Amino acid sequence: MTEMEESLGLSDITSRYLKTRDKYISNADKYFSKNEFRKSSELLWGAVTQSIKALASLSNIHIPSHAKFFDYTRSVSKETGDETYHTLFLELNTLHKNFYDEEIPRSIFQYFIERPYRF
Question: What's the CA gap between 62 and 54, in Å, rounded?
Fold first, then answer.
């Protein structure tokens, strides 16, 4: 755990999720630069899910399955009164689908690579 993580009071598990997220984003950028969009999209999706797990871990919530991400993001949006969190998550789920079905055209993939940073 870094000094900054300690000063923020982050648990080891939260820190681990954030480190994994950062590793996935770095690798996604690498694959994007090689025009390997399917691989890049799955790594970006992984970064999104690690971010959600990190946030949930702050409240001692464990997300054990894909379906639970939808439930959790919906509940966060309700609690905060901001639907953006859940709707952006729904949009980013396209990254996960893209790995299997290559639904995102190469011409607009740049848009999708920027979205997880906003999330």
Answer: 9
Model pTM score: 0.85
Q: Which domains does the chain have, with CATH numbers?
A: 11-118 (1.20.120.330)
**Residue 41 CA from chain centroid, whole number:** 11
* Distances 22 to 29, 43, 70, 92, 99 between C-alpha atoms, Å: 11, 10, 22, 17, 19
Count CB-CB contacts under 10 A for residue 100: 10
Instruction: Give 48-93 pLDDT, tens digit per residue.
Output: 999 999 999 999 999 999 999 999 999 999 999 999 999 999 999 9
Tally Cβ neighbours within 10 Å of residue 34. 10
